[in-house]
């Protein structure tokens, strides 16, 4: 019998959700950054193997709804909770187990749960064994699996634990589907990732990216994107002296986009100032939140 189901990943910011999803799907789908809270959308990757199909979703890190944007992120967490067949709760091995369990309890999950202890490469084997035993004593997880998402360790054990909990069902997507999000979305995420890499703290959090044009030409793909910031001063920083910084964003993003869409790409970037987009419902809708 074929198995198929929806599997959602939850965890505190920086626990390694995006890294794990990428390690499993084997394609760069979610963006990864050492800064917290980079994942704002539900990102779905589809894994099709002989005998089973898993539709994965990477939800935003769990945080307080300080801004409207954050409320939308919590909304995404809740809606993901409601439609999952299996929930993967992930924590950093160096983080407090008690705190994480308290957080996971507060989600009031009604679906089967697998507790993943990530970053096993960061702690001693004996300490990990003790941690796993304490996590198992919680009693609410069907399995406790230590992994290193970064080093792709423990993934086989994790997959076996997930498949064991999947319902019998036919595949939801055709075999070659990687994701149900549009290419445009990933292009915008790649550009946003570069902004995270190149600029300090506050800039990335005040920035969003929209792809305004995506044209397949004969020899290349022409993409136009707008980088939306909240203040003129931020615009000046992103542009840089004589446009040096924005060119750097463009070059790095273009290289990754070309790898992702497997086509030569012409990328054009504009920076626009839209005050308070994070608190404005209309903008949030326009930008896909
Ligand atoms: N040492 C180690 N670091 C890891 C591992 N997995 C992830 N990381 C690092 O932890 C940081 C956060 O990883 P992400 O995958 O972006 O975390 P996330 O949970 O998706 O974070 P948000 O998007 O903020 O919710 C990055 O710097 C990763 O490189 C791991 O197995 N070992």
UniProtKB/TrEMBL annotation:
It is found in: Cytoplasm; Cell membrane. GTP binds at residues 11-18, 58-62, 118-121. Residues 118-121 are annotated as: G4. Residues 58-61 are annotated as: G3. Residues 11-18 are annotated as: G1. It is a peripheral membrane protein. Keywords: Cell membrane, Cytoplasm, GTP-binding, Membrane, Nucleotide-binding, Ribosome biogenesis, RNA-binding, rRNA-binding. The keyword Zinc does not apply. Residues 37-41 are annotated as: G2. Residues 3-168 form the Era-type G domain. InterPro entries: G_ERA_dom, GTP-bd, GTPase_Era-like, KH_dom-like_a/b, KH_dom_type_2, KH_sf_prok-type, P-loop_NTPase, Small_GTP-bd. Monomer. An essential GTPase that binds both GDP and GTP, with rapid nucleotide exchange. Plays a role in 16S rRNA processing and 30S ribosomal subunit biogenesis and possibly also in cell cycle regulation and energy metabolism. Belongs to the TRAFAC class TrmE-Era-EngA-EngB-Septin-like GTPase superfamily. Era GTPase family. NCBIfam families: era, PRK00089.1, small_GTP. This is GTPase Era. It comes from Chitinophaga nivalis. The gene is era.
């Amino acid at each position: 019998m074929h198995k198929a189901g929806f599997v959602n990943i939850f965890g505190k910011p920086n626990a390694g959700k995006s890294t794990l999803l990428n390690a499993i799907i084997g394609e760069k789908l979610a963006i990864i950054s050492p800064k917290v809270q980079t994942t704002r959308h539900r990102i779905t990757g589809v894994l099709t193997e002989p005998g089973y199909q898993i539709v994965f979703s990477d939800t935003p890190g769990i945080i307080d709804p300080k801004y409207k944007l954050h409320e939308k992120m919590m909304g995404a967490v809740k809606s993901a909770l409601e439609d999952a067949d299996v929930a993967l709760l992930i924590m950093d091995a160096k983080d407090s187990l008690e705190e994480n369990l308290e957080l996971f309890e507060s989600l009031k999950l009604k679906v089967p749960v697998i507790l993943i202890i990530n970053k096993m490469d960061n702690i001693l084997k004996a300490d990990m064994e003790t941690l796993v035993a304490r996590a198992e004593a919680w009693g609410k997880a069907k399995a406790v699996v230590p992994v290193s998402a970064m080093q792709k360790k423990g993934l086989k054990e994790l997959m076996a634990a997930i498949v064991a909990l999947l319902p019998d069902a036919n595949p939801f997507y055709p075999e070659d589907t990687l994701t149900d999000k549009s290419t445009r979305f990933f292009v915008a995420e790649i550009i946003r990732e570069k902004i995270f890499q190149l600029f300090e703290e506050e800039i990335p959090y005040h920035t969003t990216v929209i792809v305004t044009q995506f044209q397949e030409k004969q020899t290349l793909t022409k993409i136009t994107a707008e980088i939306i910031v909240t203040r003129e001063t931020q615009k000046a920083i992103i542009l840089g002296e004589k446009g040096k910084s924005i060119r750097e964003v463009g070059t790095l993003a273009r290289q990754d986009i070309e790898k992702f869409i497997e086509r030569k790409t012409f990328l054009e970037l504009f920076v626009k100032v839209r005050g308070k987009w994070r608190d404005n419902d209309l903008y949030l809708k326009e930008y896909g939140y």
